[in-house]
Amino acid sequence: MSPRYRIFGNELSPYSVKVRSYFRYKQIPHEWIVRDPSNQEEFQRYAKLPLIPLVVTPDGQGLQDSTPIIEHLESLYPQPSIHPSDPALAFISALIEEYADEWGNKPMFHYRWFYEADQESAAERLARSMMPGVDLQSACAMIKERMVPRLKFVGSSPETKDLIEDSYKRQLAILDRHLARRTYLFGNRPAFADLGMYAQLYQCSTDPTPAALMRNTAPHVAKWIQEMLGPRAEGEFETWETLGPTLMPLLKDEVAGIFFPWSVANAQALAAGQKEFSMTLAGKPYSQETQKYHAKSLAALRARYAAVADKSRLDSILKEAGCYTWLQ
Question: Which of 25, 28, 34 is nearest to 5 (CA)?
């Protein structure tokens, strides 16, 4: 059995590069394997679901789902920790990671498959990496035919276009101000939040339309993304007193303003047996098919919050941000 971990993924998969950055940060010996037909047999041997990333451990276990993968490995490789020692900051970091995984994926997927130039770019890169030997034009057409209809699963449509794109632009504006004074989101070392946010925004930095927006309006975000390709601990985590002035807007405007209302509406619709739901977010109409995984993630986030022993400091931050009631 190989002493190295094996990561089956793809450069265009946000959750794959999220896991890869974690391995690089912890300097865990690993091999990056681009998922393609040549390794289909090995992939199927370990994967419970046909999804990447798949991590195969040195003792032959197959791990899937980026957040549980990282949490499992963090128990094995605790240093340097991706969690601030302050329980309040540790939860806020995990909250931002969850926001990035569940809502931050929407702008990424929207830009990639909504506009023709982005469709062409992504389809060609996927075809070259995952379908070697297949006629490129045919492969690109096949990929677009499969992926473009999936926009509906992330709630992307002509009606929701402005809402999703406004969210992306807000992310860039908030994070660029925040990252102008530090290397990573919580100071001079990467946190759980960095892994989640970077994973989605790295993808945006590779697609023509969102990349142009980032290049023109958020140079500090672009620099941070490059740091996250090979993250290193260069110091300590900051305190909320220094982080709060520029990080609070992300909690207020995005996490409390969009992510929680959407996540709770999805969970309520799912519990009511509805196949889709409609609502108003940030003053704009939004509709989407209900998603079981999102509801499961919300429950896990609430359980994480409940497990915080002393919530006094955390609750004061969550109440100011408008996040507190959504976690009850």
Answer: 28
- The C-alpha atoms of residue 296 and residue 68 are separated, in whole angstroms, by 13
Residue spans of the domains in the chain: they are 5-76, 87-327
pLDDT tens-digit map of 251-299: 999 999 999 999 999 999 999 999 999 999 999 999 999 999 999 999 9
Beta carbons of 160 and 285 less than 8 angstroms apart: yes
For the whole prediction, is pTM greater than 0.85? yes
Res 1 pLDDT > 60 = no
Mean pLDDT of the chain: 97
| Burial (0-12, 13-18, 19+ Cβ within 10 Å), 145 | exposed
Residue 306, SS3? helix
Q: What region does 13 belong to: left with phi over 0, alpha with psi -120 to 50, or beta? A: beta
Q: What is the CATH number of domain 87-327?
A: 1.20.1050.10
**Phi-psi category of residue 298: left, alpha or beta, with phi > 0 → left and psi -120 to 50 → alpha:** alpha
Omega before residue 80 within 30° of 0, cis? yes
54-56 and 5-9 strand pairing:
antiparallel
Q: 3-state DSSP call for residue 175?
A: helix
Which residue, 61, 54, 47, 40, is CA-closest to 10? Answer: 54
What is the rounded (10 degree) CA torsion for 301, 266, 102, 11?
140
Query: How does strand 284-289 pair with strand 5-9?
Result: unpaired
CATH assignment, 5-76: 3.40.30.10
Alpha helices (H) along the chain:
14-26, 40-46, 66-76, 87-99, 105-114, 116-130, 136-147, 161-179, 192-204, 208-217, 219-228, 240-249, 260-271, 292-306, 312-321
Give me the torsion for CA of 108, 110, 112, 115, rounded to 10°.
Answer: -150
